[in-house]
Amino acid sequence: MNPKLSMVLPLPQLKPENNDEYENRITFRLYIEKLLNQKVGRYLEIISGIASLASVGIYIVSTYFDSVEWLATLDIVVCSLYLTEYLLKLFAAQHRLQYIFSDFAIIELLTVFPLFTIQSVGSWNYLQRLINISRILRVFRIVRMINKIQSLSDTENGGVMRQIYVIFSTVTTIITVTAGVLYAFESPKRQELIANDPNKGCSNQVDRCNFHEMIYFTIVTLSTVGYGDVIPQSEEGRVCVIVLIIIVLVVIPKQMNELIRLMGLQSVYARSFYKPNHEIPHIIICGYVSVASLKNFCNELFHQDHGGQDKNAIILKPSIPNTEMEDFLHNERYEMFLIYLQGNPMIERDLRRAAVTQAKACVILTNKQIVDSHSADHKNILIGLLIKKFVNHLTGCNIRLCMQLIKPESKMHYKQSLGVKQITDQIIVVEEFKMNLLAKSCFCPGIITLLGNLVTSAGEQKESLDSEWLTQYTDGMGHEIYRTDLSSKFQGKTFSEVAAIVYNEFSGILFGLELDFGKQAIITLNPGVFVIQNQYKVHAYIICQDKKVADLVATYDMTTEEIANYHFSLSQPNSDKDKLNEEEENQVEDLLLSGKDQLDDQYIIEQDYLLLNEPVSLMDATSIFLLEQPEINNHIVVCGIHPSIYYFLLPLRAKYLKEIQYVVILAPEKPTDIWEYINKFPKVKFVQGSPLISEDLQRASIHCADKAVIFAQSSDANKTESEDFLDQMHDAESIFIYKAIKKINPSIQIMIELVSSSNIQFLLDKDYKYQNDFKYELTPLQASGEVYISAMIDTLTCQAYYNPHIVTILQQILTGMRQSNPITKEIVKNLEIKDSNLYQVPVPEDYLNKTFGELFNYLSIERHLIPLGLYRLAKAVDNKHPYVYTNPPAETTLTPRDKVFVLAHQLPADLSGIPFDANFDQKQVNNKEVENNKALNFLLEKLKQQTSSQNGANRVVKQKNDKTVIFQGQQIKQTKNIEAENMNLNAAAMQVLDQVNEQISIVKDQINDIKSSLAQKEDEIVEKCRRAIRYELGTVIY
Prior knowledge:
Membrane topology: Multi-pass membrane protein
Protein name: BK channel
Keywords: Coiled coil, Ion channel, Ion transport, Membrane, Potassium, Potassium channel, Potassium transport, Transmembrane, Transmembrane helix, Transport
Structural class: alpha/beta
Shape: elongated
Largest sheet: 6 strands, parallel
Number of helices: 42
Number of strands: 24
GO biological process, one term: potassium ion transmembrane transport
Number of domains: 5
Pfam families: BK_channel_a, Ion_trans, Slo-like_RCK
């Protein structure tokens, strides 16, 4: 036969004659195996372990009595249970012979031994010793049960703690079993010696054997002390001691070496745990915890403005702390309050080590410059969901999360994955907040500093400052947003009246209310004429210097008894405050989880923002030279393309804006993938080039741009947390772009994002005087709101822990966010509450050289506007750069160089300039302006050529700056006037000047034609022009 063929042919299978009986037996065996592997098998092992524990305990106690008659009956019952379990496992085993010779199967057989020999004890006394040994061997069953229970409760319990348990269980088992075996041999031997001794054991100095004496002897032998006061009398006992010593010499050192190896692999942070204290609350910080993020978060968390109560922060990270982290953990300011645990927040054992069930909140940080932002968000969402599920499973309560996410769409993913009706977590969306803030600063300069001051606790400035502007700026830094109750004495008054009272009495700015309607809370900023009533609980949001001022507002005009009752009500604990009532939650429909809010958001975008009917292709929006398009000036240049640029353009296209500026994106690569999200925004251009190259910047008309925005570059996704020192080099490209732009256009205002706050020193002027201790927050660029530091998000996250609604408040300030929930929308409509936006307006002419207090009372009471602070331009006092003055004192004198931050539903026309008219013929104005500019440029070039050919002639040509007059929101540039006073010009130059003047006359005629079409509004336009001229004259004088 061919050997190759024999390898291919199948071997004949031997089957029993009755196939049905064979299949039934196989099916029944699989069924038994399935039961043993599921709950039935676990319950059987638990019952067997409990029976073993009880029988061993009874046996040890029975050794102190002469005889226990019912012990044999107990052995029969217990051994019958053992035999049943053994037979079931043997029948269900796939390899029965292998199971029979396994370690635990042999031990099980030994423990079943008394069942077959209990009746033969009287005929052979040595058999009783074997039965006693089999009774003590049941300890192995107990150990096996404990091991399985532990493996079910904690599958990740490896490492050092697991090995310590193994050593402990091994030593305990050896001591117990050895003591039992010794007792089985020594007790009969000692009884024999005592019986043969005429002096009842006194001659041999032998006492009756006790079980605890055998345990003592075993421990002394294991510890190699060997006192010699107890010695084995039987030969079997001596053999047992020899076997004991051999086992200990082999097993224990091996296990100790494994323990030492594991301890060498794990740091002390991986073995430590946090012991909670009910009097000291603690929070857990996990996610991407870098040293820079942790510094900013802890500076705010442990600041004295948040009260003197102690609190602990537990840092839970998978890696061991690097050198920089070690130094920070041992900072004398935080050393007592920071606990670092090496662990994974996705593992339940590590969550227990951090006492997450008793934590006040859990903070999840993120890497704000990571390339793969979606993966980072998904990781944070999974961590948050697991922590909430773990806490809810063990306690039935809900833990509050303060979580950072990068992408705005990730917020929706989290809410949909959470699967509850009411969200109590604070979600900080990094890119949405950053983009909205940078966009708002383009038409409201200084807002970065204003909001930064409001969310950062600064405290008192101890150092003396040598400049007035710096003193005012640092004074404004000390003001924050505080939430407090509103005194019942304010009922019946309008919000504007209450704001005036709070400012005059307490020097605090009341700018918002929180109306509590049971499960529904509504945040509204400057509701204006809204009358405060007692139908609902009202909380106030106040900008003031410390919490004491805010508390005074809560007890305004109260009697001593009323104040005592108020403080007593605050001291009453509310046990249900942090618990979610499922029945109430199910009654409240949250449309956000069902997806209906997306339609509302789409409607809000179409209603509140300017969008084109048809999208613009990237090819049509791409320009090679913007110089060929004179209508694009006073624009915003965006250096680089950002994945979330949609949220930057959105606030710049709000309908409440009086002017829509062009946005020019300058990037090396075309934004093909991103363009589909922004192709409906009007006045968006793209120029392909590098912002590091001067020629490309000039092609983007940077010399005539109004603002420039520089985004920080994304970091490498593979960057490890031990490379935090590279963050300082992360801003290198942004700094070079800043320098390149300033070299071409020194007067342009640039908003730049920096990762490391220390890099702001590379952007300062050469004449800047450095202090001994450099503080970036005291630099002119930071004071003017031109620098956005990424660390602001970490400070905001900490503020969200103290004030759950701070994120909503800032979002309303930045975007004027409408209520999208239909329930809150209906409530707002019934209460006639109107949304407010943040504006920046010049000081009214009638209040120049008056005080800020007078202006506050006028705007709040008569105009229903709430001023938040001042934006003081250069030379307002002794400043060379603009700066923000948050909540200035009432006696602060106003100058023409001041602008006011105000919250208003709709800005009055006399404060904002000529209002924007969407029906104004923009195309006609732009066409005429283009023609005029081309003619002027041609004649000026000709004049330059003519005059440069004359040798020895001294000529001075003065050209006035373009004055912009706004007609219904559109800009019409006044013509260029050329003065030729005190000049020695020859005949050729005079001829060119005549041609220029002739062209100027033509331009004036064209402007008069346009003005004639606006004859009905001529008086209003003239009045606004006069105000603008007076303002400019005041600016020059002061």
